[in-house]
């Protein structure tokens, strides 16, 4: 009679080795679904210049590749390696879809915001400084991924300096972007005299602070877990959401131009603030789909009627109501 084989050894801290990977992949898939909806809405509502559309679709393709690689990770750890605890710490393709691809995606989004900062401020040194930090964190992520592939053990990566530089650089770049954009947009808001323009700027400021602060917090949390708990894989969970957060941040900024279905004229404010002059005449662009990657905010037409006050927007409001009624009837 055959002797039954011994049961495989299961370490008492098994949850600290399995839960981070599992939860990280779940967050990754969830954010990929949100990103897919964001890209679809962008495709339906906007027709920006080819540069902006190339940026959006390139990021989405990279995110799809990263999601496929992360799915290969989870299959390797929990399907191919079922019952073998040593497989849970194997790197497999994790160094490719986390530090390498996440660093690349972060650099693309951060450089886009750096370009916006340069347009808004006209300060080349500030934009170059933030851009160099962004490129440095991407290079550190690439080096960290290559070294992690060579080591092959996720619990032995804390001896490396490159992952720490990657996470610290990403957090620093996000913080600088959030602070710079907030200051620049706040100054523009202080110069504006129109409620509509102030409202748009207020929304952009809030989105900038919220999105960049969230991505910076995730990078800092990952760095803390990486340094504090080197024997576990807790640091694997947050970075799986990091790349998707960057892409969703960009799409949220773009799709923030959308308005109600029958208020298309107000939905076409562009993705920036170029040529904004709040002291004189303000006109609105009533095109159905925007085709400009410049930086401007579009507001309703307001002109001086010669009596020292601005013309009422009542006529424009009534016209919008009539257009909406005609559309419903058709």
From TrEMBL:
Residues 170-258 form the DUF6534 domain. The chain crosses the membrane at residues 22-43, 55-80, 100-119, 126-149, 165-186, 207-226, 232-254. Keywords: Membrane, Transmembrane, Transmembrane helix. It comes from the Eukaryota. It holds the Pfam family DUF6534. Residues 306-330 are annotated as: Disordered. The keyword Acetylation does not apply. This is DUF6534 domain-containing protein. It comes from Pholiota conissans. The lineage of its organism: Eukaryota, Fungi, Dikarya, Basidiomycota, Agaricomycotina.
